[in-house]
Amino acid sequence: MELSVNVDHVATVREARGGTQPDPVYAAMIAEMAGAAGIVCHLREDRRHINDRDVRLLREVVKTRLNLEMAATEEMVRIARDVLPDVVTLVPERRQERTTEGGLNVVEHRHSLREVVEILHKADIQVSLFVEPVLEQLEAAADIGADIVELHTGHYANATSERAAQQELYRLHNAAEFARRLGLRVAAGHGLTYENILPICRIPAIEHVSIGHAIVGRALFVGFERAVRQMLELIRYGRLLPPLELR
User: N or C: which end of the chain has fewer CB within 10 A?
Assistant: First the structure.
């Protein structure tokens, strides 16, 4: 299982005071040196954290894989075709939300999303869709030509009981296996932490996780490089555990 580090919240700290520090581009370089397999950034329409300068500099310095999260709008598609990230992850976006609150409704927006996927593919950009672990959404994602699905793990991360967490793990496990049978590569992300990552590592069909907030929070106490390395150590350990058995 690979780890991509989301540097959005480094930019959030920067924007709290304005200016140039801390720099998410520098954080990305440290994350790669620590062993991250990719860097994620979300260019929001309101530019609340990551900005256009960040994206362009990240494209210049990232040596692993740059994943640009964005809404499926004309402006963002134009930027993606200009910057050429390795992967674009299409996400829903509302200005009022603090962070992405759920997955894309691919079933409802199948036609418009298919057009965006085709445009990005013509630019030789792989396309990932951020979706709920719902089989109908995965079928729609495969139908419109997505390369990857990133399963929304927020409901698992926010579960308030062991039973609820197990139910969400069951959904994620089934969704990941189903997506792989459809020929999709499977990633997961949202709300994953040092405390809840191990069960996700035990789902074999999930190949990749995207984590940002937890790593940035840990970095306040141990430094950014060590925070990334600690997450990688947990992922490697979790991958050695027996596959998840859910009843």
Answer: C
pLDDT digits (tens, 9 = 90+) for 100-114: 568 999 999 999 999
**Residue 42 is among the residues annotated as catalytic for this protein:** yes
* Chosen CATH of 2-126+135-143+193-240 out of 3.40.50.2000, 3.90.330.10, 3.20.20.70, 1.10.645.10: 3.20.20.70
Q: Retrieve residue 99's tokens.
A: 């962070």
Pick the catalytic residue from 49, 173, 190, 208: 190
The residue from 42, 49, 155, 208 that is catalytic is 42
Known active-site residue 109: no
pLDDT of residue 93: 81
Determine the residue type at 17. Answer: R
Total-model pTM = 0.94
